[in-house]
Design brief:
Blueprint lengths: L5 H12 L2 H59 L10 H11 L6 E8 L5 E11 H15 L2 E9 L3 H10 L10 E10 L1
Antiparallel strand pairs: 1-2, 2-4, 3-4
Helix pairs in contact: 3-4
Length: 189
């Protein structure tokens, strides 16, 4: 048989000798302390966390909706089944280049079609401003569904800049032209 420690035995004896109403008051106070500690350590942090989450919920929902919209747009762009604006690849290149005043800068243009009916265009711009090139490539991708497979960009310096500036860009003199000699290979499925 195990013996009860003397301190516990003393406490038990003192407890039994206390009047019944005093024991009830002590038990009630002990229960109140336990409830208070549970409220302080469990309930209060949980409710504060819940309130913070409820405040952050609208922002999280807005971010989710934006991400879903972007995903839908991305999937839509990837599944684009529109036909190109111009069926003839050579005409497509020249039409878009003319819109950006870059048609006169094209010094070489070769169009090939392989067995899988994929158009491949090799072309060279003698001198084209960088920003015009970027806009032209964007239009070629969006409107004509061409994508770049190979690109070689060479910055023009000195007198070549001045000769070509009048041909291809129509920019005001005195502005930094950023002219490039560009050799591209584009493909369209």
């Amino acid at each position: 048989m195990t013996s009860v420690p003397p301190a516990l035995e003393r406490w038990r004896l003192q407890w039994q000798h206390r009047p019944r109403h005093e024991r009830r008051i002590i038990l009630a106070l002990a229960a109140l302390v336990v409830v208070g500690l549970l409220w302080l350590w469990l309930w209060l942090p949980l409710t504060q966390h819940l309130q913070r989450m409820q405040r952050e919920l609208p922002l999280a929902q807005a971010q989710l909706e934006q991400a879903q919209r972007q995903l839908s747009e991305s999937v839509g762009l990837n599944r684009q089944t529109e036909t190109p604006a111009t069926a003839d690849a050579r005409a497509a290149v020249q039409r878009v280049a003319a819109r950006f005043n870059a048609a006169s800068a094209i010094v070489a243009l070769d169009v090939q079609q392989n067995a899988a009916q994929q158009n491949t265009v090799s072309l060279t711009f003698s001198a084209i401003p960088f920003d015009t090139l970027v806009q032209w490539l964007d239009a070629m991708q969006r409107e004509e569904h061409f994508y770049v497979t190979t690109a070689s960009l060479t910055p023009l310096t000195g007198s070549a800049d001045k000769r070509a500036e009048g041909k291809s860009s129509g920019k005001a003199s005195g502005q930094a032209s950023g002219l490039l000699r560009v050799e591209l290979v584009l493909a369209r499925p």
